[in-house]
Request: fold
Amino acid sequence: MSTKNILVKYGWHALLIAILGDILIPFILAPFYQGYSHMSMTISALGNPQSPVRVVFNLWMLLEGLLFLFAIPAIYNYYNSVSKPLINTVVVFITIFAVGACIFTCFFSVNETKDVVTTASQIHGIGSVVGFMVFLFVPLLLSILEFKNDNKVNGVIAVVSFIIAFVFFALFVMSDKPEFSNTIIAKEGLWQRLNILFMYLPIGVISVRNIFGIRKS
Reply:
């Protein structure tokens, strides 16, 4: 079996592992980082230079980015016959996210507080912002692909997830503003996790359906 065929066959598995890992691993590592708060601290803060779990977290981010990249042939193969322009855009967006928001995080860490700015934290910030902004639109593109492919349930899940993810992304951006510092909007860790959950939900559902051979609905 060629490398391409292996990636097409097992790409959905790689994608599902990346998604579940991104959601679960922060909860696994957090107990080993005294003072870490899921509500008020971003996920990438687990990889800051003062973090006792930085090595494990940063290695995971590298692996996560590679898993997303490994999944691309399977995603492309599945949607190629539906719409090449749309799936090409999805592939580009996933690639940017995998490199900018995942792999860059391994090599360019944030600092424990935003008051400390370094070249590494600036590179991380740019990569992460661009990565998340483009991936935010992946559910919307998937909804169009799913409706064109006559998968109405997946299409609805994807478009609803996009709307919810967009709202949480907006709250995440607002959380850093001084005027919201003493409100629930300041809980940037919460909004980031909810944003990620709904960004991943459509492609996670599609992964499961492909892995277990669930028919269109």
Q: What stands out?
A: The mean pLDDT is 93. Residues 69 and 95 are 6 Å apart (CA to CA). The two ends are 31 Å apart (CA to CA).
